[in-house]
Amino acid sequence: MTARGARLTIHGLSSPCTDVPRKLRRYGRRATADPCRIRPAKLADVPAVHAIEQSVFGDPWSTQDFRDCLSSDALFRVAETTDGVAGYVVALDAADEGEILNLAVASGGRRRGLGRALVLDMLDALADRGVRQVYLEVRESNAPARALYAAHGFKEVGRRKGYYRRPVEDAIVLRCDA
After folding, report:
1. Which one, 10, 26, 97, 168, has least CB within 10 Å?
2. In the chain, where the domains are located
3. pLDDT 10s digits, 59-114
4. Is 149 noted as a catalytic residue in this protein?
5. How many whole angstroms separate alpha carbon 177 and alpha carbon 135?
6. Which of 17, 101, 16 is nearest to 53 (CA)?
7. Which residue among the candidates 80, 88, 149, 164 is catalytic per the annotation?
């Protein structure tokens, strides 16, 4: 277990994708995710991952992009539930820096802790590779994603004007010290 994992356990922020009994929030909604498993992606996952990608992003990666991730040194993880692949994350690292390139959760899996579990797993995987700082870009208007990343210690360090194409929008560059 990494130092990050130990710290998260101390603060009671272990992964929501466990067999812990699910708690109800005050208004009756489940507070933790349905059980899931975060695992390395495999070639058979690419169609499901690409379907999520197309449903989430206006300028999606191609199936070949995901295949290339599998054949490279990229870290590529999927969140698997009883219904199949419900989300994924892709990251690269070089020296002591890492970058989360892509993260998405299928619409039916949102607000259930899958994004959080994917971020935690990827931060641990990057830390295991010696990464000290992790970067990512997020659409300026993507408030839910920005809140998710902020909850994990990501802070705004820059802006890329017109970075996204469909629709054209600035990217906010975030960094987290691992």
Report:
1. 26
2. 3-132
3. 899 999 999 999 999 999 999 998 899 999 999 999 999 999 999 999 888 888 89
4. yes
5. 9
6. 101
7. 149
Tell me the CATH architecture of domain 3-132.
3-Layer(aba) Sandwich (3.40)
d(CA 66, CA 53): 10
| Beta strand pairing call for 133-139 and 97-105 | parallel
The separation between CA 79 and the C-alpha centre of its own chain, rounded to angstroms, equals 9
Residues 6 or more apart whose CB falls under 8 angstroms from that of 118 comprise 38, 77, 79, 87, 88, 89, 103, 105
Burial of 102 (0-12, 13-18, 19+ CB in 10 A): buried
| Number of Cβ atoms within 10 Å of the Cβ of 157 | 12
Helices 46-56, 63-71: crossing angle, 10 deg rounding: 130
| Residue 4: alpha-carbon gap to chain centroid | 16
- Distance, in Å, from the CA atom of 77 to the CA atom of 39, rounded to the nearest integer, reads 5
Annotated active-site residue in 27, 137, 140, 164: 137
